[in-house]
Amino acid sequence: MKIGIVCYPTFGGSGVVATELGLGLAERGHEVHFITYRRPARLSHFHENVFYHEVTGEDYPLFEYPPYDTALTSKLVEVVKYHDLDLLHVHYAIPHAAVAYMAKKILLTDGRYIPVITTLHGTDITLVGVSPAFKPVVEFSINKSDGVTAVSKFLRDDTYKQFNLQNEIEVIYNFVDFSRFRKTNKDHFKKAIAPEGEKLLTHISNFRKVKRVDDVIRMFHLVHEKIPSKLLLIGDGPERRKAEDMCREYNLCHDVRFLGKQDAVEELLAISDLFIIPSENESFGLAALEAMACEVPVISSNAGGLPELNLHGKTGFVTEIGDVQSMADYAISLLSNEELHQEFRSNAYNRAKEFDIQVILPKYESYYKTVLERSVYKHTVD
Ligand code: GMT
After folding, report:
1. How many whole angstroms from its chain centre is CA 279?
2. What is the pLDDT of residues 102-138, one digit of tens each?
3. Which atom of ligand 1 is nearest to the CA of 122?
4. Is residue 123 within 6 Å of ligand 1 at its C-beta?
5. Do residues 307 and 368 touch, judged by C-beta distance below 8 A?
6. 317-358 pLDDT, tens digit each
7. The pTM is what?
8. Residue whose CA is closest, atom 5 of ligand 1?
9. CA–CA gap between residue 259 and residue 249 (Å, rounded)
10. pLDDT at position 189
């Protein structure tokens, strides 16, 4: 198949899923065309089946808001036409689903029908998508997509609740690549970070409000009082300053390390003892899955799709959003019992195996086939 993938090129979840999916599809012999405004973070090596098309707009003094949607639409029309694509797969509804619909309509005037699949990732529905600034367009363009997938049952059900939809949403979970995310021996590295054998707690996010990084600090403060431990904070974003202030206030600076954005997160996960994700909203929690693949148990909130991934009392613990005391109690119980900790480590790994890229990628391929078959029929009856 010749597949066009539209995504945000950032470090964040939807961009990572889209890029890894495209690379996986290319490995399996498909021709994959990435179309976005910057080379995606994980698209670093040449691959004979991978193409990258950069969207560039025109600067003009009249444009206070450069019209990216228009530039992207034109690029989609060009790439579909000249590379003879079979399918467009857009990640994150805003603005990609509406842009793809527009491109589809333009291509139809040329007699070409390009099926569009939209993958909903989370905030495009739960936070931004429901805002009156976007809702009518999001609802319309989801309804006009030839196929729609969501990354968890929670997100599927929430989308049905929030929007008036006519089409069915297929759940295809996030996935992890075990050739990259696995527990490797990094003892020398662990010794440098935790020289006295302290336990290592890790949090990775974009430090937006929705991630509740302040809960991570509060929880760590309670754990630190009972267990010699260190906290690694990976990522960056608007809440970082507040988190730094809290560490000073709690006198924790010596044992909390702000590492900023990191490429090789797997090396940090490989030395971690516990992963913390107390989000207010989380459609799936890709970072938690990557931790589990590295045999790291997870303490999470019960937001969104997190309980679909993190099994309470098995792969980690799940608490109410904001229940910092329970999070700390669970962490202490796990970190002070080596046997239990080992059991949770292996449960986390086994659970992550269910989301192996080798298991999930064929689900996308088979969904593509279903949508293509359906679209041939749809086109002929339109
Ligand atoms: O976590 C973020 O805020 C980034 C966001 C994105 O769209 O890039 O991630 C969302 O998509 C990921 C991949 O499907 C999911 O694993 C995350 O749970 C989801 N984030 C939220 O729902 C907050």
Report:
1. 13
2. 999 999 999 999 999 999 999 888 788 889 999 999 9
3. 22
4. yes
5. no
6. 999 999 999 999 999 999 999 999 999 999 999 999 999 999
7. 0.94
8. 13
9. 19
10. 86
**328-339: pLDDT as tens digits:** 999 999 999 999
CB 281 within 8 A of CB 303: yes
- Determine the distance separating the centroid of ligand 1 and the alpha carbon of 296, expressed in angstroms: 20
Residue 92, CB half-sphere, CA atoms under 13 Å: how many? 20
**What is the pLDDT at residue 380?**
54
Token duo for residue 110? 């040329």
Residue 300 Cβ < 6 Å to ligand 1 = no
Tokens of 257: 């390390």
Task: Find the mean pLDDT for residues 4-19.
Answer: 90
> In the chain, what are the domains?
2-175+357-375 (3.40.50.2000), 187-353 (3.40.50.2000)
Distance 17 CA to ligand 1 centre (A): 10
Taking alpha carbons only, the member of 180, 186, 220, 188 closest to residue 203 is: 220
Q: Ligand 1, from 282, 310, 355: best to mutate by most atoms within 8 Å of Cβ? A: 282
Q: Which atom of ligand 1 is nearest to the CA of 15?
A: 8
**What's residue 378's pLDDT?**
62
Instruction: Answer whether 206 contacts ligand 1 (Cβ < 6 A).
Output: yes
Nearest protein Cα to ligand 1, atom 12? 13
